[in-house]
Amino acid sequence: MTPVLPDLLNIDATLSDTERDIRTATRHLVDDLVRPHIARWYADGRIPARQLAAQFGESGLLGMHLDGYGCAGASAVEYGLACLELEAGDSGVRSLVSVQGSLAMYPIWKYGSDEQKDRWLPGMAAGELLGCFGLTEPDSGSDPASMTTRATRTADGFRLDGVKMWITNGTVADVAVIWAKTTDEDSGRDVVRGFLVPTGTPGFSAREVPAKLSLRASATAEIVLHGVEVPETAILPHVTGLRGPLGCLNQARAGILFGALGAARDALASALDYATTRIQFGRPLAGFQLTQAKLADMTTAWNSAYLMALHIGRAVDAGTATPQAISMGKLHSTRTALDIARTSRTILGASGITGDYPVMRHAANLETVLTYEGTAEIHQLILGKALTGFDAFA
Ligand code: TGC
Ligand code: FAD
Predict the structure, then answer these.
(1) What residue ranges in 190-272 does DSSP mark as E strands?
(2) Which intervals hold domain Acyl-CoA dehydrogenase/oxidase C-terminal (predicted)?
(3) Fewest 10 Å CB contacts: which of 148, 168, 210, 339?
(4) pLDDT digit string (tens) for 132-191?
């Protein structure tokens, strides 16, 4: 069963009944579907993505913060609390859900045509169809404006050529949202546009990234687009430019800033439990002042990050959250979570490095979470620009 922490600030009292209900339901789902299997999935480097997606779809978790097309119409805070509980199971499981909802469904929902929405969203909400989001390339990570994937006009559509790298769900997806440069017909300039590419299209191939030491319970792919022909109707009609993919990242980051705290809570709860039962020098580790200091500092850090997450989630729901606020939350949550996972590991000593406890797995996963969706440094620079007015990227 999911271990939780004592709610010393009584933050639960500030949640609505619906928020608590969604949290509890997701926690039970993780207890049933994830916890019994996750150590094995992680060791084997695999995840039964389709099976989980079907069950998550049935529970209304896929695209839950969107409305219509079979989506649950939940708030950003409800989505965040669900991400937190999923990531208490494993970051890879949360990734499966956040990529599907925020990075694959959201661009279709926000930028797509009515036909595109009708074709893809109901099946994706149900977990019958999986999506992925192809922005990053081998030579274009933090700087997506430097992408080289190209969409060239043909008589009746576009031909896509390029390589996308590190694409979550890439090997299991039915549809890939591919961001590529094409020539704008009016200005003659290169612009970034989004394309919906069914993964069975000739010329599309995906292969699993081998030998990951982090986020092992997640499908991560290199996608090669070699002369992939798509019709005119594959283009996302309602967005042009980098603000398209970056707008999707706001959605995903707003979930991840809650999610990372789930992994941290699970690691900390594990350390707390271990400290009360492990005897050294004739008493439980929990009786030593240094252990208590670690537990107190971690609990304080966790609660401050959780309060920031709730504040940002409520701002998203009110329509007042800026991308900079979301960057601050993503930066603070992921760094706090990684610190907590590492310090929790020290409390478990040698046992902490094994797969018998979730702590090392969370710490290893959080290295990825610190890196994807904008690295810590990128979020520092976004905040630096907001504070100083100087653009370090330019
Ligand atoms: P810049 O010139 O600042 O902006 C270009 C255009 O984009 C607009 N914009 C945004 N729009 C919406 N939301 C945001 N957060 C936005 N940030 C910028 C901006 O207004 C402008 O629009 P327009 O219409 O005026 O042209 O762009 P830049 O090239 O200087 O880059 C800025 C930078 C570095 C912050 C950005 O490129 C960035 O965030 N880089 C990080 C890349 C990243 O996060 N990649 C993530 C890939 S997906 C992933 O990791 C999934 S992980 C799996 C999982 O989630 O589980
Ligand atoms: P780089 O951009 O090469 O950065 C390397 C280092 O340099 C970092 O520390 C970075 O912060 C630093 N750096 C870069 N620029 C600057 C600067 N201007 N100033 C100071 N420091 C700088 N992408 C997708 O599109 N879709 C996905 O589904 C997806 N899933 C992922 C899943 C996993 C498991 C992983 C690991 C990544 C995934 N990504 C995905 C890619 C992810 O978004 C990128 O890894 C991330 O954006 C960083 O790019 P990079 O790895 O190329 O690092």
Answers:
(1) 190-198, 204-208, 220-231
(2) 241-387
(3) 210
(4) 999 999 999 999 999 999 999 999 999 999 999 999 999 999 999 999 999 998 899 999
Q: How far is the CA of 377 from the centre of ligand 2 (A)?
A: 10
> The tokens of 263 are what?
């992994």
Residue in this structure with the two tokens 């986020």, named with its chain if needed: 215
Whether the CB-CB separation of 378 and 372 falls below 8 Å is answered with no
| Residue 373 annotated as catalytic | yes
The residue contributing the CA closest to ligand 2 atom 21 is: 377
**What is the value of pTM for the model shown?**
0.98
Tokens at 344, concatenated: 């929790």
How big is the chain by its Cα radius of gyration, in Å?
Answer: 21
- The reported pLDDT for the residue numbered 254 is 98
pLDDT single digits (tens) 309-366 = 999 999 999 999 999 999 999 999 999 999 999 999 999 999 999 999 999 999 999 9
- Among 157, 133, 308, residue whose Cα is nearest residue 230: 157
CA distance 242 to 150: 14
Q: In one letter, which amino acid is 313?
A: G
